[in-house]
Predict the structure.
Amino acid sequence: MKLRNLFLTGAMLMSIGVSYADIPVYLDDSQPLEKRVEDALSRMTLKEKVNIIHAQSKFSAPGVPRLGIAELWCTDGPMGVRPEVLWDEWEQAEWTNDSCTAFPSLTCLAATWNTDMAELYGKSIGAEARFRNKAVILGPGVNIYRTPLCGRNFEYMGEDPFLSGKMATRYVQGVQSNGVAVCVKHFALNNNEINRHTSNPIVDDRTLYEIYLPAFKAAAIDGGAWSFMGGYNLFRGEHASYNPILMNQILKGEWEWDGAVISDWGAVHDTATAVTGGLDMEFGSWTDGLAGGMSNAYDNYWLANPYLNGIKEGKYSEDELNDKVRRVLRLTFRTAMNRNRPWGAMGSDDHKEACRKIGGEGIVLLQNRNGLLPVNPENVKKIAVIGENAIKMMTVGGGSSSLKAAYEITPLQGIRARFGKDFDIVYERGYVGDTLGEYNGVKTFQDLRDFRTVAQLTEDAVKAAENADIVLFFGGLNKANHNDAEDSDRKSMDLPYGQNELIEALLKANKNLVVVNISGTGVAMPWASKVPAILQAWYLGNETGNAIADVLSGDVNPSGKLPYTYYADLMQCGAHKLGAYPGTPAKDKFGNDIFDMPYNEGIYVGYRFIDKNKLKPTFPFGHGLSYTTFKYGNASIDKTSGKESDTFMVSVPVTNTGKRAGSEIVELFISDSKSSIDRPVKELKGFSKIALLPGETKTVTFEINRDALSFFDAEKHAWVCEPGDFEALIGASSADIRTKVKFNVSGDNDSRLTFNK
Ligand code: BGC
């Protein structure tokens, strides 16, 4: 029986007189997955088993050629499919068919608070990965936004575990509907880029379970993720990628997860602990290249010959290896050898549309005094666009998420396309920031050099502002090192390149100033009280300029809300206020230098810290405005109406009281009035995005269950729902609660909950 015949379907085989009986079980996709895995495993030699669990190139693992078990190709992730690199180098392979759709950053996706958008995103990016024949896309990133300085916040989904978990779940489902696996990263506690290989977060169990694990758990269990990536950092002295607590005890033990753990690239440092610590596949360890052709450098990986020899010498049992191989086979059968996969698509009109839609829905209108936005053709004829971020292409840069986009519409191009016909548009640079436009050999080919002095740049910008009816300033960060980039945190919350001074100068020149901040994390806005309109735009991918112009013009009514707190300064953030960043020098078990980083703020991350300390951030978690207004009615509880036993419903009517159609994100927080342990003032436990026509009212209903009321009791190592008084707080942001309703819960953890109004 020739293996190529095996790619025929069962019906086709039968029609040519070949029966399933001729097909080895592992290749017969009518057989249960586990049976196929066991069959394949039983046919593999020890060497083949070891081969399958480590890389053969920068982004692929070899499979088992003798048995027709496919190679496994991975790609970054998580905002588009990375261009092809050389076999054993980070440099470009210079393919001409690998330009992708660059989607908005994951912070933007989170800012839509729309799980349908998460699924659309996942489906679209998964289809691109599928088209490029990738089995695994290295994302989504769901590490919690612990500090605004973290260089990779833009790749994550904000500060709240509930919001990130809900968004990640649908993203995962969307991607995997293509027969492409997600690789949820970076598990866990990879919350900073500074010292990323040597940070040793010291985190208590309650904080771990309540804040840092739930999004991963949702992706694993609710989303059904097929693979996970371990972080570079340590946890309790052991590297995350093979940390027995994270991988064995929690992910594979408590969550009963059957997927494969992939190391972060180069995150493995030792065979013995990698073997026992729950790692299944090793990627990206340093190799000495393949130039000599005498030996395969990948044989030197920790999970390659050192492991093989260790097994032969009796140091390691084959049982552990078999478990790893089973997981890798499962991953392969679900993806690369899944004959029911769709074909995928790349750069399609659908993806373009998805990109623009997600971008438009994720942009957050932070402030809009005197109805300055949308741009009003009745009193605006001349628009001054100022700032480097209006012209800078941003899909290139930032680290491993850098992309080779098929095209990129800059904000200025988007504005010219939308407003150019009816308005006079002038552009001035204002400041010079990063002129590089290159990452790993992918170039934007933009020449952004400008040799004017700061004084001259400012003077020219001020002149343009003075002569305009409205000024649109585009600034923020740009994915250069220390400005939203992998492997480096920001040095402060301040905007770089003298932007604050420039904004002050522009304000003096023209009071109709709109600041469009492009970043994936919070920046200090000392001028926030003076600037009438502020928009948070993110890295939006191909359709950046169009998505922004949609919102500025009012073609799209903004409906995004912040997935993280916009601190006024670093001291409003628990990690910084309590001196728990970036850690103190220590030693690991081998005597290597590491940095202990006690998470002193515990569960008080983001708005939980703000609430506890009664602080006033620049903009609170969950905040975002619309060009229309919404009125919330009174919340009511129906204690009998839960869809499942042990749940009940809280409802609130919401009315669009303005003149435009718009969407509102309604947020539900739960507050435990009295508890045996210290709890946050309130925690997000539900959200719903509703579209309303002018004058229309819809009732939003939330289902409240035991999970929404529980805390993690570290002593019992269990979630506990204590009887007592609670309050459901419903509002437009964490600082804008519009209606509340009290209820009382009786019945302990083991009995049915009873809800009393
Ligand atoms: C990053 C991962 C990425 C991998 C492969 C690492 O440096 O931390 O997020 O997926 O490289 O590019």
Remarks:
- Confidence is low (pLDDT under 50) at residues 1-8.
- The pocket of beta-D-glucopyranose is lined by residues 76-77, 138, 185, 264-265, 400 (CB under 6 Å).
- The longest strand covers residues 662-672.
- The radius of gyration is 27 Å.
